[in-house]
Structure formats: structure tokens, C-alpha cells
Amino acid sequence: MAIDFDAIKKRLASLSGQNSKQKLLWKPPEGETTTVRLVAFPDNDGTPFQERYFYYGIEKYGILAPYQFGKPDPVNELIQSLKAEGTKESYELAKKLYPKMRTYALVLVRGEESEGLRIWSFGKGVYMDLMKTMMDPDYGDITDVNEGFDIKITVTKAPGKKWADTSIMPRPKQTPLGTKKEVTKLLENIPDLNDLYELTSYETIENSVNKWLNGGAQDPWSKSDDTTGSTNSDPKNNQPVTEQKFTSAVDSTDTDLDSAFGDLEEEFPF
Hints:
The chain is α+β, with helices and mostly antiparallel strands and about 270 residues long. It has a single domain, classed as Replication Fork Single-Stranded DNA Binding Protein (Alpha-Beta Complex), CATH 3.90.198. About 30% of the residues lie in helices and about 20% in strands. It has helices at about 5-15, 20-25, 75-85, 90-95, 125-135, 180-185, 200-215, 255-265, and strands spanning about 25, 35-40, 50-55, 65, 100-110, 120, 150-155, 165-175. Strand 7 and strand 8 form a beta hairpin. Helix 3 runs antiparallel to helix 4 (about 90-95). The protein is globular and about 60 Å long.
């Protein structure tokens, strides 16, 4: 049997940590402006980006929401139960449990082309800015490998602010992603977003939610949507989530529950 040197190279890279999650993810440096080229994910739904929903605050790290993959999801089941209950208290608790969206793009960082394509994670504001840029007839498909546009990403943090601001600016001139040979190599080695986050088991999520309901975890409102990941914790609590009763502080101005739940559903596709 002939030796497959490409397979050996990939295995060596895996063993040496060259294909680690840290190397796949890219984050624009704070206080700097970085030029990158966005590349569309293959097998997309018509947009070049991919979205993922996470539950925050139940555990130290975000929990990848199973419902978005058609999997049983104890948090989603609890939300539906709270909606059916129809009280102000249930609305307040459901609001805390709703997932937050993170968006992902493939990027080639200019000046670091040897690193290949990496994955950039960003929030709703940057996502909207990118989509608006693509809707501008002066730019269109900025991810086109032959006639797209590089973009400049600037991250700044004002004194006293907790979080940094990220702004994007497309460069005015169309440029190719690279030479034909370079583009072929890049597109043959596209990182898989599914390799970054693993689904936590139903039982583990259920136990984590029970722990949070009993006061053993942080309030989701206190978490930033800049944290992503999954949890492997397995607290010992065998009481099913759906059998618990819930109470929560309520804002007396929330008088229209149907409208309130409707606002939530407009943002989160349950």
C-alpha cells in the first residue's frame, strides 16, 4: 500500500496542536486596525456567514443550544413550558433563558496568509454592518474570491467602558483573494465550524439548568454575549426541569404578556 503523505501531514499537525481550536479562531486585536478578506462558508443558506445560538449564564461558558440542530433541548422545553404558563413571573424567567446569537465568518488576515482561513466570531452589531455593506450596490458580494473587497476592522475601547467597539470599513478597490493556486489551496482547507463546539448531552444540560434554578449558577443577565463554548459540568440533581415551579422578580410595567413573548420570538427563532 502506498504511503499517503497528506494523511501523515494532517495527523502530525493534529498531534502537534496545529489544528487546535485556538488556531482556528481569530480575534481582531484591540487598539489596532486589521485588514482581512471574508470568505463564504460552503453549503450556506444564501448568506456567506453562519449563525449559532448559545445559552449564557447557566454555566461558566455558553451552552450550544441543541434545538437549532433538531435535537431535544431541555432549556427550550422549559421556555415553552413557561410560555404556556402565561404569567409575568414565567415571562421574566423565560427572558433570562432565551439564547443569544453569535455569527461566524471565514477570514483571511492580510499579512498572515500563511495561517490560512480562520474563523471570526462577532455579535449582532457587526453582523448587521456587514450585511448592510453587502446590500450597498457599490460593494455587493464582498466575499467573491475574484472581485470581492477586503475590509478593515478596527477595535477600540473608550476609557471607562467595559467592552470594546468593533467597526468595519470596506476598502474601495476590488481585489482577488489571492492567486489561482493560493485560492485553490485555501478553499481546500476550510475550517469546519462544527469542530469548535460540541453539543452537551441532554442530561448534563438538564442538571445544569436545575442547578441554576436552585441558585447554584450565575444570572444570565450578568453574562456578556462575547463568551462562547460548551460545558461539561454534571451537577448531581435528579429533579426534572419540567416539574419545578418558578418565581422571579417582575417589572410592574410589563402588562402585555402576549406582546412581550412576541417580541422575544421575533429575535429568537423557536
